[in-house]
Write a structure and sequence with these properties.
Its EC number is 2.7.7.65. It catalyses: 2 GTP = 3',3'-c-di-GMP + 2 diphosphate. Pfam families: GGDEF. The protein has 4 domains: about 5-95, no CATH class; about 105-180, no CATH class; about 240-335; about 350-499, Reverse transcriptase/Diguanylate cyclase domain (Alpha-Beta Plaits), CATH 3.30.70.270. It has 16 helices and 9 strands. It has helices at about 5-20, 25-40, 50-55, 60-75, 80-95, 105-120, 130-140, 150-190, 195-205, 215-280, 285-335, 350-365, 380-390, 390-405, 430-445, 475-490; strands at about 105, 145, 370-380, 415, 420-425, 450, 455, 460-465, 495-499. Strand 4 (about 415) and strand 5 form a beta hairpin. Bound molecules: guanosine-5'-triphosphate. Guanosine-5'-triphosphate (GTP) binds near residues 378 and 381.
Length: about 500
C-alpha cells in the first residue's frame, strides 16, 4: 500500500522537483509535479482563457467560418477538447481555397451565381444549347458545397458555346440596325418633297450610326415619333380634303347635267313652238304660242341663273378648301417648332430640352452620379447682327452649335434655350469638370473662326455652370446657371462662372 503523504509535504516536494528539472514555475508545471508525487492522474486543466483569447483573435470570412467560430465558442464553454479541435479544423478548411482544395468557398459561389444570373439574360434565350449550358452552370453554383470538378466541367462546356452566342447577339444587333436604316430610308423616300421631313430623316439616319447608346436610341425614338405624328396629321387632313373635293365635283357634274337637261328641254320646246308658228295662219292663234315661248325662255333663264349661282357657290367652296390645304401645309411646316428640334441649329428646342433634362435627372438619381448643366449666351450678338446682317447671325448660331457638338462628349446634350442662348447637359460631370469643359469650348471657338463671307469673326460667349444638387428641380438648376452667366457678363464677358 503506497505511503500516504500529507499535502504540505507533497507541495514542498513538488517545488523541489520543479527546481531539479529546471521547469518554468507555471501553475500547469507545478500541478503536473504535484500530481506525479501524489500519484494522482495528470489531468491537464482546460485552458479556457487562452482559448477564448485565441477565438477572439480570429477574423472569420464568410458564413462558414462564422458558423465554425460559434461552434468553437460552444466547445470552449462545454470544455470539449474534441469540439475545439473539430471547430478549428473546419474553420481552417473554410479559409480561401488552398492548393488541393476541392470546393469553392460558399461566399465565392454565391457571388458568382449573382453575377451570372444578372449577366446571362442579356444573351436572350434564342440559342437553346447555350441556355442549357447556362442553366447547368447556375445549378452547379447553387449546390452547396460547390465542387471544383463539377464547376470545371460545366464552365468548359459554356466557354465552348459562349463565342457563338456572343457572335449571334452581335449579328442580331447589326441586322436590326440594317432593318431600322431601311425603314427610315423608306419613310424618307415617301416624304422627299418636304424639307422638314428630309432634315428629320437625315438626323434619324445619323442617329442610328454606331456607337449606339441608349441616349441615341431615345433621341431617335423621339424624332421618329415627330415624323410619324406629322405624317399622320397630314394624311388625315388630305384624305378629308380629297373627300370634300370629290363631293363638290359630283355636285358640279350633277348640276351640269341638269343644266344640260333643262336646256335640251328648252330647245325641244322652242323647236316645237317654231313648227307650230310656221303652221299658224291667224294672228290670234299665234299669241298663246308666243306666251309659251316666253314662259319657256323665262324658266330657262331662271334655271340658268340658279345654276350659275350654285356653280359659283361650289367654286367658292373649292377655293376655300384649296386655301385651307395651303394653310395646313404652312402649319405642318412650322410643326418643327412643336417637335423637339430647333430647325436652325438642329439642337434640341425647349420642349426637347425639358424631356432630356427630365430623363437625365431621373438617371442621375438612379445611379447617384453628378449632373452639371451650362447656360451659355453669345457675347455682343446684337452687334454682330447689326454689323453683318441677320443671316450672318443665323450662321453664327449654327457655327457655335457645330463647334459645341464637336467638342462635347457623346453623352452630353445641346439645346437652344432662347435666341442666342444654349444649354448643355453634362451627365457624370461635377461642377469643376463642367466649368473646365466650357473653358475648353471657349478655346475651341477661338481656333475655329466663324467665316462670314471673307470676314473671320471671333465668337465668344459667357457661361454659368451649375451642378444639380439633391432633390433640386431642373428649372432651379437652370436658374442658378443663368445667374452665374449673368455675373460672367457683368465681370466682362467671355468668362465661365460656376454657380
Ligand atoms: N440672327 C439672329 N439673331 C437673333 C436670333 N435670336 C435672337 N437674335 C438676336 O440676338 C440679339 C441679342 O441681343 P442682346 O440680348 O442685347 O444680347 P447681346 O447683344 O448678345 O449682348 P450681351 O448678351 O450683353 O453680350 C438680339 O438682337 C436678337 O434679335 C436668331 O435666331 N438669329
Amino acid at each position: 500500500m503506497p505511503e500516504q503523504r500529507n499535502p504540505s509535504e507533497i507541495a514542498r516536494e513538488a517545488l523541489k522537483r520543479l527546481a531539479e528539472r529546471h521547469l518554468a514555475p507555471t501553475p500547469a508545471n507545478y500541478q503536473a509535479c504535484y500530481n506525479e508525487i501524489a500519484n494522482l492522474p495528470n489531468v491537464m486543466p482546460f485552458p479556457e482563457p487562452p482559448l477564448r483569447q485565441l477565438a477572439a483573435g480570429l477574423c472569420p470570412r464568410g458564413e462558414v467560418q462564422i458558423a465554425q467560430l460559434s461552434r468553437l465558442d460552444a466547445a470552449i464553454s462545454g470544455r470539449s477538447w474534441q469540439g475545439v479541435q473539430d471547430a478549428l479544423q473546419a474553420y481552417i478548411a473554410a479559409a480561401a481555397p488552398s492548393q488541393g482544395a476541392t470546393q469553392l468557398p460558399h461566399e465565392v459561389s454565391t457571388a458568382l451565381l449573382q453575377l451570372f444570373e444578372a449577366v446571362f439574360p442579356a444573351f436572350g434565350r434564342d440559342d437553346l444549347h447555350f441556355c442549357a449550358a447556362v442553366d447547368e452552370l447556375l445549378a452547379a453554383l447553387r449546390v452547396t458545397p460547390c465542387e471544383f470538378s463539377r464547376l470545371e466541367v460545366v464552365l468548359r462546356n459554356l466557354a465552348g458555346l459562349a463565342p457563338y452566342a456572343v457572335a449571334e447577339q452581335a449579328e442580331i444587333r447589326e441586322a436590326l440596325l440594317k432593318l431600322l436604316h431601311l425603314i427610315i430610308e423608306n419613310i424618307g423616300e415617301l416624304s422627299l418633297d418636304d424639307a422638314w421631313f428630309k432634315g428629320q430623316i437625315d438626323g434619324l439616319l445619323a442617329a442610328v450610326e454606331p456607337p449606339l447608346t441608349l441616349r441615341h436610341l431615345d433621341e431617335m425614338e423621339r424624332r421618329l415619333r415627330d415624323v410619324m405624328d406629322k405624317q399622320s396629321r397630314a394624311r388625315a387632313r388630305s384624305v378629308e380634303a380629297q373627300e370634300e373635293m370629290r363631293k363638290m365635283l359630283s355636285a358640279f357634274i350633277e348640276r351640269l347635267s341638269t343644266m344640260n337637261e333643262s336646256s335640251s328641254a328648252f330647245q325641244g320646246k322652242i323647236e316645237a313652238s317654231a313648227r307650230q308658228i310656221e303652221m299658224v295662219s291667224r294672228l290670234e292663234d299665234l299669241a298663246p304660242l308666243l306666251k309659251d315661248v316666253v314662259s319657256a325662255t323665262q324658266t330657262m333663264a331662271e334655271e340658268t341663273a340658279s345654276s350659275r349661282e350654285q356653280l359659283r357657290a361650289l367654286q367658292d367652296r373649292v377655293l376655300a378648301t384649296e386655301a385651307e390645304l395651303v394653310q395646313l401645309h404652312r402649319e405642318l411646316d412650322s410643326a418643327s417648332s412643336l417637335a423637339r428640334h430647333d430647325p436652325l441649329t438642329d439642337t434640341l428646342n425647349r420642349k426637347g430640352l425639358d424631356e432630356a433634362l427630365e430623363r437625365e435627372i431621373s438617371a442621375v438619381r438612379r445611379r447617384n452620379t453628378p449632373l452639371s448643366l451650362c447656360l451659355l449666351d453669345i457675347d455682343n450678338f446684337k452687334r454682330l447682327n447689326d454689323r453683318l446682317g441677320h443671316e450672318a447671325g443665323d450662321n453664327a448660331l449654327i457655327h457655335l452649335a457645330n463647334v459645341a457638338r464637336a467638342c462635347m462628349r457623346p453623352t452630353d446634350t445641346l439645346a437652344r434655350y432662347g435666341g442666342e442662348e444654349f444649354i448643355i447637359l453634362m451627365p457624370d460631370t461635377t461642377l469643376e469638370q463642367g466649368v473646365e469643359a466650357m473653358v475648353r469650348l471657349q478655346r475651341e471657338l477661338t481656333k475655329a473662326f466663324f467665316l462670314s463671307g471673307r470676314d473671320k469673326v471671333l465668337i465668344t460667349f459667357s457661361a454659368g455652370v451649375a451642378q444639380l444638387v439633391n432633390e433640386e428641380r431642373g428649372s432651379d438648376a437652370i436658374r442658378r446657371a443663368d445667374q452665374a452667366m449673368y455675373l460672367a457678363k457683368r465681370a466682362g464677358k467671355n468668362r465661365v462662372f460656376g454657380a
